TrEMBL record:
Involved in the biosynthesis of a nickel-pincer cofactor ((SCS)Ni(II) pincer complex). Binds Ni(2+), and functions in nickel delivery to pyridinium-3,5-bisthiocarboxylic acid mononucleotide (P2TMN), to form the mature cofactor. Is thus probably required for the activation of nickel-pincer cofactor-dependent enzymes. Belongs to the LarC family. HAMAP family: LarC. The keyword Disulfide bond does not apply. It is an enzyme of class 4 (lyase). This is Pyridinium-3,5-bisthiocarboxylic acid mononucleotide nickel insertion protein. Its EC number is 4.99.1.12. InterPro entries: Ni_insertion (IPR002822). Keywords: Lyase, Nickel.
């Protein structure tokens, strides 16, 4: 499943809650998770509203008056002791940790010392846990978030008047695309710290709507309804639409289209012995090729860049390998033009042992012959001969074979 979050008009916890409910996530799923964490009664209601003439769902969180300011330690204890699904607990913990780290950096204190004020109140705990439960219910493999509108002007907060984006929001959105807002947006806060923390926790990538077949749309409303402005957030939920295969939305791409993706990540904290297994996993997931480049990162740290050349159809699976098999928490992706020569696989024999050979052609002329190394190594071991000799003999046999091609000894390459 693929989800696109349109945060081009801003983001907050209640906007995300409303969008999830509007998209079909049962309110009972969200309520059950919130009830499991909240130490005091919390009531959630959803109602249809309009924002800037657009229909949306507004999610209300009703709580008793409370001036209780909780620390990150308090909130973490609530989450740890709650009977939550582990996926919901882990995601909610990540969101609050992001908030604590950002607030701590802004005020020059450790995350453990941060008092969340409004963020630690029951309504914000309900927003965070409810949104995490909603996304866990969707079970999306990929969540793409648009550039985030943050607003402009100033806002009143517990620490006084702050510029927009507030310092915590600016820190939370560091390294991801954001902007003030579309032309004509009101001078107001469009993205809250809770909204920023939630988006950065759930996003697997950032950008415009990816190719997808949309099955459900959710529109969540913010609490304010400024004139001439749609204070909403949208979710588009559906299935990846593969432009390679051609599914009625995108024209099919030619068999030998040169456009593919390179997915890569800089890694400086992974046990080096795990890298060969990660390369194998990338190839098994559908990457055309996978390789490692040694690099030197900041402060002189030796590191690696892990690369994978990937067809569009395998992007999701390859991206997941980066996150599951390595320590990276982000990847870069860019299109490359690949021009591959037509090739075929031949089978030759050396000392009675079969060896596959890849033959590449240019304008009908054989320009490259490459025996498969695993076959060469097996034949050399069985024959008790040096592998270099077996390799040379296999190339000579393949050269003779390509001078008089035989339909019986050639087959299409799997690549």
């Amino acid at each position: 499943m693929r989800v696109w979050v349109d945060a081009s008009s801003g983001a907050s916890g209640d906007m995300l809650l409303g969008a999830l409910v509007d998209a079909g996530v049962p309110l009972s799923v969200i309520t059950s998770a919130v009830d499991a964490v909240a130490p005091e009664p919390v009531r959630l209601d959803a109602e249809p509203v309009t924002r800037g003439a657009l229909a949306a769902t507004r999610c209300h969180v009703e709580i008793a008056d409370s001036a209780h300011h909780r620390t990150w330690t308090d909130v973490r204890a609530l989450l740890t002791g709650a009977p939550l699904d582990s996926s919901v607990r882990d995601l909610a913990r990540q969101v609050f940790e992001r908030l604590a780290v950002a607030e701590g950096a802004v005020h020059g204190i450790s995350p453990e010392e941060v008092h969340f004020h409004e963020v630690g109140a029951l309504d914000a705990i309900a927003d965070v846990v409810g949104v995490c439960a909603g996304f866990a219910h969707l079970g999306a493999d990929e969540i793409v978030v648009s550039p985030v509108a943050v607003g402009s002007g100033s806002v009143r907060a517990a620490h006084g008047t702050l510029p927009v984006p507030p310092p915590a929001v600016a820190r939370l959105l560091t390294g991801v695309p954001s902007f003030a807002g579309p032309p004509g947006h009101p001078a107001m806060e469009l993205c809250t710290p809770t909204g920023a923390a939630l988006l950065t926790a759930v996003a697997t990538s950032w950008g415009d709507q990816p190719p997808m077949t949309t099955r459900a749309i959710g529109v969540g409303a913010g609490s304010r309804n400024p004139e001439g402005w749609s204070n909403t957030l949208r979710l588009l939920i559906g299935d990846p639409a593969d432009p390679v295969a051609g599914d009625g939305i995108f024209p099919p791409r030619r068999e030998n289209s040169p456009t593919e993706l390179v997915i890569e990540a800089n890694i400086d904290d992974l046990e080096p012995r795990l890298i060969p297994g990660a390369l194998d996993a990338l190839l098994a997931a559908g990457a055309r090729d996978a390789w490692v480049t040694p690099i030197l990162m900041k402060k002189g740290r030796p590191a690696y860049t892990l690369h994978a050349l990937t067809p569009a159809a395998a992007v999701d699976a390859v991206r997941r390998v980066f996150f599951h098999e390595t320590s990276t928490i982000g990847v870069r992706e860019h299109e490359v033009l690949k021009h591959a020569l037509p090739r075929e696989m031949l089978t030759v024999a050396v000392g009675g042992h079969p060896i596959a050979v890849k033959a590449a052609r240019l304008d009908g002329e054989t320009v490259n012959l490459q025996p498969e190394w695993d076959d060469v190594a097996r034949a050399a071991a069985a024959l008790g001969r040096p592998a270099i000799d077996v390799l040379a003999e296999a190339k000579i046999a393949a050269l003779a074979e390509t001078s008089a091609p035989s339909a019986e000894t050639s087959r299409p390459s799997a690549e």
